Amino acid sequence: MLHISATLVAVLAGTASAVLSDWQQCGGSSWTGETACASGSGCVKVNEYYSQCQPGAAAPSATAAPAPSEVLSDTPGPSATGTPAGTGPGTTLQSGYYWIRAVEAPNFHKYLQSKPLYATGPAILGDYTTAGQFQVVDGQLVQLVSAPGASPVTLLYGIVSVERYFNNLSLSVTWSATKNTYGTFGWQGDGLTWSEPSIQRPNAIAWYVCSGQTVYINIGNYLYGTPSGCADETIHYYNDKTANN
Fold this sequence. Notes:
It contains 1 helix and 19 strands. The chain is mainly β.
């Protein structure tokens, strides 16, 4: 009887240890550990070698309704019809600014910019030859659009939409001459982040690049539930003197 009890305890202990806590590793090409995540979480592939338990990544039983001020939409954000705000700083990085680019396929070394170039309109990832120059100032994502040495300096501001797109987890980013009033931009290491107290983001540096190379903030789980026609990306600053491919 003592032997059976000890075995039962061991089995129960093994069962308990089989459930992983949020943000623990749950898979990968050489992973031999546990793979079961806690209730409400799912095992999300981050890359070939690493998968992670992410809260909210389990298949939902019902779709939550958006908040009253947030309208679910399956249509993309604003079209590329903007007003030129400047001639641009050129192809040499100006002091105090950064290039911002993606580092994963299919947008490897595609650079953040506006469309039309140096104008109000959508934020996109495009060719290195037309890369914009950026900085985060007091929580604002600013794009330098005036010529080198111009006074006063002309900036455009990254504007985040309150309206949600695609999977109800996508916020469009556009450029405006007025400051953003929804959320705060920042850096996590070299990664560009956006945060807002009313939104609990699993990954503060998760973005989508969708049709027409338009850029959206992904407020859901990275590499989970990606909308059709979009790609998951993280975007990072780069401070070499010139942008490159």
